Hints:
Blueprint: E1 39-41, E2 44-46, E3 52-53, E4 56-62, H1 69-76, E5 82-88, H2 103-118, E6 122-129, H3 151-168, E7 174-178, H4 190-204, E8 211-215, H5 225-228, H6 234-237, E9 246-252, H7 256-259, E10 277-284, E11 293-297, H8 299-316, E12 320-325, H9 337-351, E13 354-357, H10 371-381
Parallel strand pairs: 4-5, 4-13, 5-6, 6-7, 7-8, 8-9, 9-12, 12-13
Antiparallel strand pairs: 1-2, 2-3, 10-11
Helix pairs in contact: 3-4, 8-9, 9-10
Amino acid sequence: MRGLRIFVACIIMGSAALVCSPQIPASSVSKGASRGFVHVDGPRLISPAGTEFKIRSIGVGSLRREALEKDYAGISGMKLNTVTVTLDYRDFYASDKPNKYIELGWRRLNQHLALAQKYRLYVILQMCGIEGSQFIPLKGATFEYRIWVEPDLQNRFLNLWQEIAKRYRDESQVIGYGIFCEPVTSGTSKQWEDLANRTVARIRSVDKNHILFIERVYGEFGTRRELSGIDFSPERAFFLVADNNAVYQFYFFERDEYTHQQAPWREDRDRATPYPDESFEIVYREALNDRGRIFHWDKEYLDFYLSRQVEFGRKHNVPMFVWAFGLMKNCFQDRGGMEWLRDVTELFQEQDLNWSYSDYREDDFGVSDNLEAKSVLSSSGLHH
């Protein structure tokens, strides 16, 4: 569950495949969704060169600040092939002037694209800040669900995505768009399904080239999974959109009692927790009347939870993506952080997933200054 401070990305296949190094074309002119762009083919991603492609990414920050070349230089040495850039509506417009876009946001996004091209990295654009939405437990902040019930806010959201897609439809180094981060609906999940399909249609009206990343729902009726203690089944959490060039995504901050321990923006995560911890019992439930399944806090639970998520991809023959995973820096301080990171990346490899770590440089989650963590991510980056 990163969302947490930045309103501020897994392909299911039968066998391991080559993770392609980016081959950014000299020209970014589109030649169709199946040529010149990373695209979906059943449960796989295919590179512009026609070979199987696996996303190995790391978050490179938001448009709140200028893009840093030293970050791109550092990431380029980690055997990763993609960066994830997080977007916020406030980077592009003010609420009192929704039809006047802010040039600084576009300039900073272009800086990221230029640096990514220089260092031969692909880019995923992930929308994390949406006007009228605040679904995460932030200290001193109220929850907000207006996006689901106010047509004007939905139109602003749709207009912004259409503008982004129109501007970048020919940028072949952009893999695609994560259209909405960590949705929790005010009513049923149908609210998110409807908005997602409308967003797909709006983007496709101007851009038929890029992959669309569609996130699962994390709760209904204003109650997030971390607060309710209920994890929706895959068929309830995910849904298919009316588009074949789509990837289905979820985050993996399991469990956030551990990964978000003592986070300064949380009021409910003060306990210092190690990994693994046999005394930490987890009750996994998928409904209110579900008696639950009991796990200990160890790799077996991580394996179960991850496998449960990717069932959707197997059933529907679609690719999946862990768009964000990671843990607080304090988890690496004699609390088993490196063991957690090794276990998680090993499980991702076993499941043949695409993934993006959160983040490279960030006060609480960053690994730019953690050589051992960078080494683990690097060794997980390229597998033949």
